[in-house]
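Hey,
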Amino acid sequence: MDYAISCHNLTKKFQERVAVNNVTISIPKGSIYGFLGPNGSGKSTTIRMLCGLLIPTSGTGTVLGFDITKESEEIKQRIGYMSQKFSLYEDLTVNENLEFYAGIYGITGQTLRQRKHELIEMAGLTGREKQLAGSLSGGWKQRLALSCALLHQPELLILDEPTAGVDPVSRRIFWEVIHRLAKEGITVLVSTHYMDEATTCDSIGFIFYGNLLIEGSPQQLIEQMGVTNLEDVFIRLVEEAEAKSGTSVQGGNPS
């Protein structure tokens, strides 16, 4: 099987604190992998290592065939990344934001015009091209951010809690776009707190205080744990992990 992401015993320590502990993941190309876990669990730290933004303390990993420690620049050029926090320029219009990010990737001329048209239509932003990004609602902002992340036609899309704080209707539309992209062959790694979103992923992994507790398809995990839904899977895993470690998930720091 051809994997977009493959990491083995990936570990990250910040002084004495272990943020990510021996995480091993393999994500097939063209699939949607959901990364679940409470705040402080290590989701974002793992994602930053895979993006080449953080150097692992130990372990190995490849993204699209490139080594995450030695070829991080190649990885950055080939992935689309989007975070929970809106990272575009609020004093620029929708059109201007797209043109700014196109410039970063060297996209010009007819290619730029075509990509802007395709992405504006995909995101449902038609008619809002001249609207300031800062005046958009949370859901519209995230669709614009997704469009900017897709400008250079990446093979892999990494989304770090992209719909946190977004209304339910916008979340549903956003995920319809994600599934459309996956059908077109783009691999998606997405972290989320929402069980309804995770249920639609091809496979998911639960991470808790840096440890990957379990992974598989949503239905496999539900059957394996003998429960009726993913939320019950998550609650049981956290309770078992807390019982072993004597810790509590409540009040955790952001991952």
